[in-house]
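agent: user wants the full assembly modeled, not chains individually. Plan: 1) parse entity lines 2) check alphabet per entity 3) run joint structure prediction 4) return tokens. Steps 1-2 passed, two entities, 847 residues total. Proceeding.
--- entities ---
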Amino acid sequence: MQIKPILSALRRHKAGTFLIAMQIALTLAIVCNALFIIQQRIAHLSERTGIDEPDIFVIECEWVGSPTSQQADARMLEDLRVLRQLSSVQDATPSNSYPLNGGGWDDGIKLKPDQLQDSSGTTVYLADDHFIDTLGLKLIAGRNFRPEEVARIDMRDRLAAPQVIVTKALADKLFPNGDAVGKTIYLAGNPTTILGEVELLQAQSIDRWAADFAYRSVIVPRRLAASLGGFYIVRARPGQLDAAMRAAPAALFEHNPRRVINEQDGVLSFAQVRARAYERDRGMAILMGVICVALLAITAAGIVGLTSFWVGQRRKQIGVRRALGATQRDILGYFMTENLLISLGGVLVGVLLAIAINLWLVTRFEMSRLSMAYVLVGVAILLLLGQGAVLAPALRASRVPPVEATRSV
Amino acid sequence: MMFAYYFQLGLRSLRKNPLLTALMVMAIGCGVAASMTTYSVFRATSNNPIPGKSSQLYVPLIDNWGPEDAAQNKGEPPDAMSYTDAMALMRDHRARRQTALYPVAPSVIPADASMLPVRESSYAVYADAFPMFDVPFLYGGGWQASDDAAHAPVVVIGRALNDKLFRGVNSVGREINLDGRNYRITGVMDTWDPQPLFFDPVNTSGFGDPVQLFIPFTRAIDLKMATNGNNNCNKHSGEGWDAWIRSDCVWIEYWAELPSVAEANAFRQYLHGYAAEQQRSGRFTWAPNVRLYDVPQWLEHEKVVPQEAKVSLLVSLGFLLICLVNTVGLLLAKFMRRAPEIGVRRALGASRKEIYAQFLIEAGTVGLVGGVVGLLLTGVGVFGVTLVFDPDIARLATLNGSLIALTLLVAVLATVLAAFYPTWRAAQVQPAWQLKSN
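--- prediction returned ---
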């Protein structure tokens, strides 16, 4: 295929060539960044919590009549007894928060009391001895809390537990040699000994600001008995989640009606918790997907439209070429190559544009750097799209009969 | 006269190349719909919640944590205030009106024993808050400054709560039970739902249920009502309520009404002076680091517009741009195909100006049809917004009159803009050349 005549023909259609190339460039720039956003969002929402999600649900219980911490604690222990007695419930634990909750207590950990900077950030989960079993966490070193080690704590009390359980991620950060159990650390300024290690437990927030300590959680043997209320994390017996989610609030109200469990979101299965936490990520991925598809469709349609116009304009020239001995394949090849040349030009500009847009997004919206793989995928998609779009008009061109050369228009 | 004729010509020409026309209409429709849908979300989230006073209401911030903590936040002071500082500012009373406020969570215990207790979105504020925030009242009004001073058990409730508890009748002067204590109702608010919830984006992310209950700040502190929002401490506050109240933990929002620039400047000076005084007394060991934000600056500072709303608006505008490039190409094809026709018209005496008019109006017709398609798609899009954004935000994005008008306007304007180049090319057609080749 000779490129020179194509180039000289394109020079006569500067406007159309420029428009198609520009459309391809812009489409590439946007599709690359959109694909990248989709991938990041999907990666984000595929992160694991480390807990056994299918059987777990969460009850948010608020106390009526602002009880003292002692009173709230007594009510809470009663509630836990009621919950654990239900036939559909396997276990239950009180907590101040849970993964994907998006609110809770984050603090800093130091290795020495006089250290200025924290060694690591951490999410603090206040829990009892049922926490690990209820959430289905895997204890990989040390031991669980004993019931007598769990004590009551109020909102403003000092967090001074003699022992804590940490996640492997936190243990590895603080003690890279893997000998964390038995070591002393300073949590919220108070010394505490690492009693055990669990394999995986995500922080309460999945927001960007918490990304530094995403899996560095600490479990403290304290029941948060606050006058406002708190969470119960409940594990249903296998297959009985729905039954347990109905039975649990009913049993709690029957036992003690002086409480508020919000009708809309007071009882949430973990699947609902997950859907809420990742609503924006999922939605953004869908939106970007729709825009990508629409964009590619419109660009393809644009190429079809303009190429059809060119074919119509050049019927006579095509006829002449055919009459002079060009085969149908030659004509087809001509238009395909023409499109490839325009697309290559567009793609070249598009790659630069894609990177520029990404750099701007990085500074403006704290996004990550675009990986070159997405650019390459985008380039491949657009080149294929161009060839696919041009196929129909090019085939039509190849079917122009040589006799066309003799007609006047 | 000619306009109507060209418009008719335009409509007729739309039917002449149905494929090309359909492509253009779809491109414009999709581009406009995507932009308008995301714009509706952006508009809702970047709404000015209190247009008349947004430049008269200010949030003062005081750095009571020091430069080490501020360095982690680009040098900004904490975005809430400690009790110590909030009370000092309330005592000094330097603004026309001022209020400290924080979210509380009392349970409303209905007199009807068969009804379960409920929790509503509630705030502890000072009496000034009601005139400051332009709170509309259905019955009665806010309480008086004397009630603040007396730590009085008074309450302002929302219309929805009044409907629930008192079946909508005037309940001013009656009492409601909050956590076992009686409060006298001084006013029932009319529906009041500023979006974003400008006076407390820190604890609500800016969008949430309308506030249904206000109680005096002084009363809430007496009863040791903990904040139902964020409490941030740079070091441990010590044991118990009293230590917490005296600590440098920040959990209070502060608002000042400063109607003129001069008053705002004076207040800024005062804030600086206050921080300098704290430094002199040894409480702060750093130079004054204070801020004074008005409503728009405050909402910007708190990043109330979700990142998703901005990015998707930008991507959709890019989408619209591509659709327009596409339209330029297609219009070029469409117009140039009619070169012979143009040649004949020019030869019969039509001026270039008339060619311009004819083709721009034709493009406008395409734009209008594209706009109608775009309108339908925007309707679908606004409906689909619930997939993408929080329900709290999605409910604000609606297809109202102004959005409909804007959709059509953008479609027509964008298409006419896109038509300039193809029209110019059409007007350049040489009549003689066209006639000769025929």
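agent: reporting back. The longest strand of chain B covers residues 181-189. Chain B touches chain A through 61 residues (CB under 8 Å).
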